[in-house]
Amino acid sequence: MADSTSHPLLFDxxxxxxxxxxxxxxxxxxxxxxxxxxxxxxxxxxxxxxxxTEVLKKxxxxxxxxxxxxxxxxxxxxxxxxxxxxxxxxxHELISLFYxxxxxxxxxxxxxxxxxxxxxxxxxxxxxxxxLLSTDALLPLARHIHSGYSFETFTYNSEQYxxxxxxx
Amino acid sequence: MTQxxxxxxIDILHSIPEDKLDKRIYFLSLLELANSCGLLSNSDVAxxxxxxxxxxxxxxxxxxxxxxxxxxxxxxxxxxxxxxxVIGLHLKLTYKVPxxxxxxxxANTVKSxxxxxxxxxxxxxxxxxxxxxxxxxxxxxxxNIFYRSTxxxxxxxxxxxxxxxxxxxxxxxxxxxxxxxxxxxxxxIEFIEQYLLRLECENTFCTLFSPDDxxxxxxxxxxxxxxxxxxxxxxxLLCALGLTLLxxxxxxxxxxxxSIDGLYGIFIGKTRDSTIHIMKKALSxxxxxxxxxxxxxxxxxxxxxxxxxxxxxxxxxxxxDKVFLVRSNFESNTKIMLSYGERMSDAKYxxxxxxxxxxxxxxxxKLIIEEVHSLADLLDVLSDAExxxxxxxxxxxxxxxxxxxxxLSKYPYQALAQRENEQMLCVALQKKxxxxxxxxxxxxxxxxxxIYNETFD
Lengths: 168, 457
Known about the structure:
Strand order of the largest sheet of chain B: 2-3
Largest interface: A-B, 40 and 44 residues
Largest sheet of chain A: 2 strands, antiparallel
Radius of gyration of chain B: 26 Å
Strand content of chain B: under 5%
Distance between the termini of chain A: 41 Å
Oligomer: heterodimer
């Protein structure tokens, strides 16, 4: 079938999408994160939204609604490895890792499950290292999915990653 | 240009030239033409655009079961194309005049048109299923593997895979059996419906003749016709028309080399239009003689202009016997009837596919052996599930000889296989065949060659 996106009159999907008040949702998280000594300014919230837009473009994804930044904030705010000084930078990196992982795992994992996995890995075996989160947790997870296994059968620990799947 | 001719070019009642509307991307082309001729303002277009965005967001949410806030751009484009197909189909089928379709979209929300479109597709699906059952219940008997594999298995595959909610424009199957009138230049359910309507006409026409007479006629086209994607209706129609033109009984499809000369005399020196006229006249005579149903007669008349160039070319090259075939005297061998068995329910099948996605290697093959009990389901699984070469080799090794022969008969050549899965299966089957002892190999080959599909209920 002819590609509708090539039509000159309408339908650049990213232009079509209504803008949602993401910034407000991010700032609303401050009331929860303050308890952990973490807050974001309006300027920082705006930067996070910009990162989201750029990463979505880079990963060729389209997002509807207010997205996942607030979910990432609320999931990671109690991490022992995040302090106010690395808070914003960590969030930028987590946003990038999240959307790349959605692509790399072929959209087989729900947002909530992926965030949960990222949080557990980051706070656990990765010991707060975003690099380890990327290379030792998310990459093996993607390989696991590419081998035909499900997310539920993936187990990750710092020593090695393995599957619960029985050998042939 | 005279004034009269200029007047004829201007349609004062219709602002949208129908011939410029694209039947495949109807909604987009309607919007574009309506916008350019002023029937839709820019603000109308903006309103439609924002309503489409909301539908897209809802569709994405349904597609991900509300579990993902984002999807790939590729998937978003697919969902949007599907939404626009649904809307376009509804407008195209409901309003004969495009201006009325534009009025409708102006007076209603895009969402309501989309929902009406989904209901339209449901009705079309029911009609197509009914038509398919009708064809299946009277399927003309032929050893041609593409005929059955498309008319029964392929179309069944479409109904199994078609999801109008998210991919209404998709066809999913390749519809390998070629129709005399060519493939409908349409998408989604429209394609399947048109394909089935045309196939039903071809099938009904062929059932007017003896399967054995048609088999022998087709053998004169090619001894391997059973494993080739060739149209059967066309040579049968041409032969019956040829016999009618010669004043002979068309029922046996038994043109001879001598009678072919008579046809040469009838067509030589005739223009394309005269040839079409002669053929259409012969069709009327044939219709009276063998009681061709009206819809089938209309379809045959629609096909005749496509056949005329072939006749003209054959006259030029003195090879008219390649168009009006002379029946072969080759007698068919005894055939083994192949039963497809009873299919499992769609729900059970979907569950099985999900399970197969979770396992690999021997575990996957074990699951198939345990859960699949009919050839029909086995063929579906081989087509729909994903396998590695090693897995297919294990599966082929595990199969009983009669099932192995049945698969060999269905997938005789790798070159004929369309999907990657089928190509790998062909390789695995050939590999297993080569590993057999010469005697066993001959036995399996004979078995595969003599398999004849049972009539599907």
